[in-house]
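Chapter review. Work through the record for NAD kinase before attempting the end-of-chapter questions.
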Amino acid sequence: MSKIAVVAAQTPEAQAALADLQRRYGTCSPDAAEVIVALGGDGFMLRTLHRYLRHELPVYGMKLGTIGFLMNQYRPEDLPERIARAQPAPLRPLQMEAQNEAGGTISALAFNEVSLLRQTKQAAHVRVDLNGATKVPELICDGVIVATAAGSTAYNLSAHGPILPFGSNMLALTPISPFRPRRWRGAILPATVDVRFEILDPYKRPVSATADSNEVRDVIDVRIRESSEQTMTLLFDPEHNLEERILDEQFTF
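Structure tokens for NAD kinase:
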């Protein structure tokens, strides 16, 4: 049996499940573990991926929260056997480098998406460059998203962006409430592309950038690319794997 570490959200339900699993399986700390079990919803799963990134351990999630797209069903029985037959789903995060008005540069990772959002009632004005070439000279919008395949069913989908098949090595570039160009609805990009957003008129029309839950205010320049160094692996029950889940989302009405 693999050495299991269990981490849980602070909800009463998740904490009760944590205590139960610790009694059943004699769990250990993440520093001594071979696999991490995360109890909660998708938000807690994202926090777990960020918190334990340096451990480079696979993470098996069980849903004990509102949304559980990245989680398996919660069942306390036969946990070691479920983990042993689980299918791996490697996630490679986005690397964001955001420069703010003060001249600082902040780096952050995103497993779901990097989103730029206007900070005031005025629309953001953004120039979009791909691999050093300008593709949209001026995007007037409430914001813009770059989403991974795993994150394409989250904020990206609510902004009418495309659902990307897992393993497609593609990213979704999706504007939020675009005003100009009027008919532009975004693009599907190869994961190797270097995306740059330059904020036009940042003092009059301030913009924030958020990598998953890490927000940077008053940005003037944001660069995004897939990380070449970092990766995390999620584990899914064979009957309910991530690839099938993403495919099913395309047929949900």
